[in-house]
Amino acid sequence: MQGLGTVHSAKRANIIQITDFHAPELDVYARLTEGQLLNRHEPEKGMFIAESPRVIERALDYGCIPVSVLIETRQIETQGKDIIARCGEIPVYTAEFDVLTQLTGFQLTRGMLCAMHRPAPKTVTEICAGARRIAVLENVVNPTNVGAIFRSAAALGIDGVLLTPACSNPLYRRAIRVSMGTVFQIPWAFLSEEHGIGALHALGFKTVAMALKEDSLRIDAPQLMQEDRLAIVLGTEGDGLAAETIAACDYTVRIPMTLGVDSLNVAAASAVAFWQLGTASRNS
User: Fold this and answer.
1) How many helices (H) and strands (E) does the chain have?
2) How far apart are CA 92 and CA 84, in angstroms?
């Protein structure tokens, strides 16, 4: 194999047929880990991978800058056509579906990936400005759960998401895919050491700790619905919220269970909480 061969075309000068799995241009899709893409030492050079046409469209709508595209050949003139047109003069690497599966190690969702520069991070103050309902994730490490929480947040009227530093990054490929690209629609930021529950209080929020405690309120308690601004705090899978986090919150709230079930997965619990606690915000 000689390398990457350019397919010359008046319409698509940058469509490049893959002929070498080991070409360095493909490292971003085949060999770089999520940590390497994140590039913690030089975050301004960080990238992420968006998967599927709809997710890529949402990232482009948000303003993310594409670096290159990896696409199944048959999708170039179908689902990928408009996206390629929006991406400008970037490389578009292509091969048949089975070749791309061998390259990436998984089957591409609708045959398309796009490497993009990470957008500039937002601040906690930016996320909270004008928001009435926000979610706060404490040490949620599973990217599938993070993605599912974002999707529920987008569907159920949550204005923003804040994450502690130990959370899975919302721009990990699996989190983006599970969220269906809503990580580009719901504004989010990472909390720093100085921005804890106290900072949310200073920004005008009452805080709701989702926790299974005997003295907790039911999630449909009337006083919760009367609060103008609420921060819904959700904990890590298994252990839940830290005791000091619960103590710092204004309310401790539980979802009533039946048939001896003691808890819900954090993503499922978030959907219930967002629906119930976001009602006042949606109806005003």
Assistant:
1) 13, 13
2) 8
CA pair distance 136, 248, nearest whole angstrom: 13
Name the residue type at position 215: D
Tokens standing for 21?
């799995």
Instruction: Please state, in angstroms and rounded to a whole number, the distance separating the CA atoms of residues 24 and 117.
Output: 17
- The whole-model pTM stands at 0.88
**Tens of pLDDT, residues 114-149:** 999 999 999 999 999 999 999 999 999 999 999 999
For residue 166, the cross-strand partners are none
In whole angstroms, what is the distance from residue 117 CA to residue 10 CA? 27
How are beta strands 15-17 and 5-6 bridged, if at all? Answer: antiparallel
Extract the runs of DSSP E, i.e. beta strands, from the chain: 5-6, 15-17, 47-51, 66-72, 92-95, 112-117, 133-137, 160-163, 188-190, 206-210, 217-218, 230-234, 251-254
Angle at 44 between CA 203 and CA 67, to 5 degrees: 120
pLDDT in tens, the chain (284 residues): 334 544 433 344 489 988 777 888 888 888 889 999 988 778 788 999 999 899 999 999 999 999 999 998 888 888 889 999 999 889 999 888 777 777 766 656 557 899 999 999 999 999 999 999 999 999 999 999 999 999 999 999 999 999 999 999 999 999 999 999 999 999 999 998 766 888 899 999 999 999 977 778 999 999 998 899 999 999 987 788 999 999 999 999 998 888 877 778 999 999 999 999 986 555 55
Asked whether 117 and 239 are in contact (CB, 8 A), the reply is no
Per residue in 172-203, is it b (16+ CB within 10 Å) or e — as a string? bbbbbbbbbbbbbebbbbbbeeebbbebbeeb
Task: Please identify which residue in the block is written with the tokens 């974002």.
Answer: 150
